[in-house]
Write a structure and sequence with these properties.
Layout: H1 6-30, E1 40-46, E2 50-54, E3 57-61, E4 65-72, H2 76-106, H3 114-130, H4 135-196, H5 202-218, E5 221-227, E6 237-243, E7 253-256, E8 259-260, E9 263-267, E10 274-278, H6 292-327, E11 330-331, E12 343-344, E13 364-365, H7 367-371, E14 379-380, H8 394-400, H9 410-414, H10 431-471, H11 475-509
Antiparallel strand pairs: 1-4, 2-3, 5-6, 6-7, 7-8, 9-10, 11-14, 12-13
Length: 514
């Protein structure tokens, strides 16, 4: 026989369950515009049936419904893809931004640039060639030489400053990774404690997922979630975060269950810049390729800016070698001003060797020439007569022609003055061509980064829509659910009233004779 209050208990469970479902829908609607909120679903399950003996056999009668759990509407696969593509997007966005700033350093849209200074430098030599004894024309050559070297110094310093700024970003991002990792670990502890009691802490899970989303922008992150075998009767997970290149074995675990492995910035012994390593043992962290802000910063600092610096040094050396080689073959208005380097390395040595080690940071106008512009070579060395050849502009014309190619250097090139015979000061048809090709490569790199960033933006956008379709709150759907749960609640309430009437009949009416 069924217990006396069996029906009431069934109705109460129905009321409680529908009330819980209404509350969940209300929670969804309240958080419809909350960033990172995941729609929650009330999972209703039939309760364990009541078994009774009925005419010699077992008969199972349903006992109603309860809330098995309140789950989040998440698609693990979409989450994984979103974080992967988001990491790639942030890599290209950061690279686009940094390379755009590097391109801006060269200022090629302005006349105040290397190409502009070179053009003025060759023009000054051409003007000097028309009147080699004119002190004003010589002063102009001096001024253009100083302007050219100053521009090289400026660019070299800008590249160095940019490397330092990017290095500061690297250190800040390592600290940010550690902060996120610690916060994720703290949340994981709270989540696990709740799961052990049988709870489903969905809002805490959302907070953790949001932190992982932010972390994935800085570095490639892979989430591994497994059931804890110590709790076979309930849903308790072991949460693991792998950072960087997930093909590296053993895997580079940032967070594992209740433990966190922090990172640290280690100064490179050569450059002094920060590298990424594990805090406990100093082992370098492999971040993978083309993923995350941190990897973008490291690559720009250690590869791209280093290449820019080397190219700029090569151009400065090539210009100095070409001009010096011709300048040494002539003399100025003073007999003793013979065989001088036009450009030096700033070390104080102003006479040959013919090819001093020049960089963009140290290229300098020979201070001996700066002190007396009459020493600037314009004509051929005298024939031993002790007389300076009046009006001779052989050297000035040769230097002026360097803007168009190496014709003036053909004998020196053949003799191996710039290394092996046939080797030119720069591996191009002219100084201008080499520099223009270098600037074009910078522009192409910026365009590539921009194109890749735009492509990744579309991928992330599509994945965001997929996420929203699964996890986002649809107010129309929630309103429909509210009506459905309200009707069910009303029906359960009517059931309580009916059982109350039945019990009243039993209590007041049974056994009474009229």
């Amino acid at each position: 026989m069924l217990p006396t209050f069996f029906g009431l208990e069934l109705a109460v469970r129905a009321l409680e369950t529908q009330q819980a479902a209404i509350n969940v829908s209300g929670h969804n609607m309240a958080n419809a515009n909350a960033t990172g909120y995941t729609r929650q679903i009330t999972d209703m399950k039939a309760t364990i049936p009541f078994t009774l003996q009925y005419y010699g056999k077992d008969l199972s009668i349903g006992t109603g419904v309860n809330v098995a759990h309140i789950e989040r509407a998440r698609d693990v696969f979409v989450d994984r893809q979103y974080r992967l593509e988001s990491s790639k997007q942030q890599y290209w966005l950061s690279r686009q931004d940094l390379l755009g700033k590097v391109e801006g350093i060269f200022n090629e849209s302005s006349e105040f640039s290397i190409s502009g200074d070179l053009e003025k430098f060759w023009t000054a030599w051409s003007d000097l060639a028309t009147n080699p004894e004119n002190s004003g024309a010589r002063s102009v050559v001096k001024g253009r030489a100083l302007a050219l070297t100053d521009t090289f110094h400026y660019l070299a310093q800008q590249i160095e400053d940019k490397k330092t700024a990017v290095n500061d970003n690297v250190i800040a991002q390592i600290d940010q990774i550690n902060l996120y990792a610690q916060q994720i670990t703290d949340l994981s502890n709270q989540i696990k404690n709740a799961q052990v009691t049988g709870d489903f802490p969905n809002d805490l899970l959302d907070k953790r997922d949001n932190l992982v989303d932010e972390l994935s922008k800085i570095a490639n992150i892979k989430v591994i979630e497994q059931s804890d075998p110590r709790f076979p009767d309930r849903m308790v997970s072991i949460y693991t975060l792998v950072i960087g290149d997930d093909t590296v074995l053993p895997q580079q675990v940032l967070v594992c269950d209740r433990e966190v492995n922090l990172l640290k910035a280690v100064a490179d012994p050569v450059t002094g810049f920060a590298t990424v390593a594990w805090k406990d043992n100093g082992v370098p962290v492999a971040l993978g390729s083309q993923k995350g802000l941190l990897q973008a910063n490291l690559e720009v600092r250690d590869v791209y800016l280093k290449d820019m610096e080397n190219e700029l040094n090569t151009i400065a050396q090539g210009i100095a070698d070409a001009v010096n080689a011709l300048h040494q073959t002539g003399q100025g208005l003073l007999v003793e001003a013979v065989g001088l380097n036009f450009f030096t390395d700033g070390s104080g040595t102003t006479t040959p060797p013919a090819l001093p080690l020049i960089t963009a940071a140290n290229i300098s106008f020979n201070p001996d020439l700066a002190a007396d512009v009459r020493r600037i070579s314009t004509g051929a060395i005298d024939d031993g007569s002790g007389e300076v050849k009046s009006g001779d502009a052989t050297v000035a014309n040769a230097i002026a022609s360097l803007g168009d190619g190496w014709a003036a250097l053909k004998d020196l090139i053949a003799a191996g003055a710039f290394g092996a015979p046939g080797k030119t000061p720069l591996e191009s048809t002219s100084i201008s061509d080499y520099y223009n090709a270098f600037i074009a490569r910078v522009g192409v790199d910026v365009q590539t980064a921009t194109r890749m960033a735009e492509s990744q933006e579309m991928l992330v956008y599509q994945l965001t829509l997929q996420r929203e379709a699964v996890s986002g709150v649809n107010l129309d759907e929630e309103m429909t659910n509210l009506i459905k749960f309200q009707k069910s609640y009303t029906a359960a309430a009517r059931l309580v009233t009916m059982f109350d009437d039945m019990l009243e009949t039993v209590v007041k009416g049974m056994g009474i004779t009229r």
